[in-house]
Amino acid sequence: MRHAAVVLLLRGIQLLDRWRLRRLARRHPGLSFDPLSSSNLAVARYALAPGARLHIGPGVVTERIHGALHFDVAEDAHVEIGSGTWLRTDVEPVYIIAFPGARLRVGPDGFLNGCHLSAKREVTLGRRVYVGFGSRIVDGDQHDLDNGNPERVEPVTVGDHVWIAADVTVTRGVSIGDHSVVGTRSLVTKDLPPRTLAYGIPARARRELGDRSETR
After folding, report:
1. 211-to-90, 161, 194 alpha-carbon distances in Å
2. Is the pTM value of this prediction over 0.70?
3. What percent of the chain has pLDDT over 70?
4. Catalytic amino acids?
């Protein structure tokens, strides 16, 4: 009987969360949740400006930790979270931020573990990209240096089957090739070719890697 009561309680929480997601989608016309995404998304924090679009694909999951997952999507910005992505928040919060008119796309089967993605123009992550806790991917300098040196913004692209370890910073204009790995506490300021192990400040290629499509 006790087990049955717990099951009923959990089902009730899930139904309530589904209702919350439907209410959120009605309140924000640009917000959409695939029916197969996790009901835990109901406890995330959503800040969506007029004209903002946020789409959560099928199989997207997260922990049920109130406010640990943050979506900040500004005017006319577009954010897409691909199918099967795990937005893991039990170690550190996940922040996904798109400034006015920006585009931010996370490809399918991704793993964002307590990290920070920020797009002022465009940030694109390919299929099965893993980003470790404390890591940041940004496409702008964030602030003007001085009156004669305004902020610079350039798109960032991360290819398929890439692993970005913990406490890594990927800066504006960088492209990371498919099947690459970036080591912990690296600073990525220049493009990395496919199948590369890179680390350091600044990060540089250390050796060639093979196919990572079956790794965990």
Report:
1. 30, 9, 10
2. yes
3. 93
4. 143
